[in-house]
Amino acid sequence: MAMTRRVLVAGNWKMNGLRADGLALARDVAAATRQLSGDVDLLIFPPATLLAEVGTAIAGSTVALGAQDCAADARGAFTGDLSAAMLADAGCEFVILGHSERRQIHDETSELVARKVMAAQDCNLSTIVCVGETVAERDGGRALAVVGEQIDLSIPQLCNASTLVVAYEPVWAIGTGRTPTIGEIEEVHAFLRDRLRDRFADAGGKIQLLYGGSVKPENAHEILAAGNVDGALVGGASLNADDFLAIAGACD
Ligand code: PGA
Fold this sequence. Notes:
42% of the residues lie in helices and 16% in strands.
């Protein structure tokens, strides 16, 4: 774990959580953060319907609020979409962009993700940009080429590196219980670090690199101790406060 970058543990609730469960989960996470080391930042990404109320529930704690996606455009006739300004207005400080479920289910391209990053930064939202290869791409020896192209195209030309976080999430590890070896994670993270340094010079060395895909309390310590891993993006395990907090506690 890099000594110079803070550790970020982010919980992506995806399309889970009605009011009662979501608010209870948020309150439990917020209440427990007092026991965590001061070097860990916690983020939760509830569904959009709960953002404002969860924001109220975690107010006064160190947990920060984020949204799971935003529109590329600022306003207008985009039925069903939510602009970055709306999310900031609802209390968000972060937004996840380019998650593989958006890339696959909603056919989002890296070019669209880059437009969304600009829209988010224009509204002072920090972004977690996700990249990751499919199992066929990894088996074909193309994992680095794929994430390299995704990172190049998903980060816009005028990106502010100081509000950018990158998450490496192999598609085949998400929700499957399978994870890459520590060596494989370190290989991709070192590759991403070099790419970000090439692009942003010193600022590229400060961008936090998260690993995501089947992070659990059982494997969190090993993953978070890996080289160039500055935190975790957690899906399934973030729906249980004890598991999510155990992952955050594994940073110590
Ligand atoms: P998972 O999801 O932890 O359930 O594998 C991670 C993610 O999609 O962000």
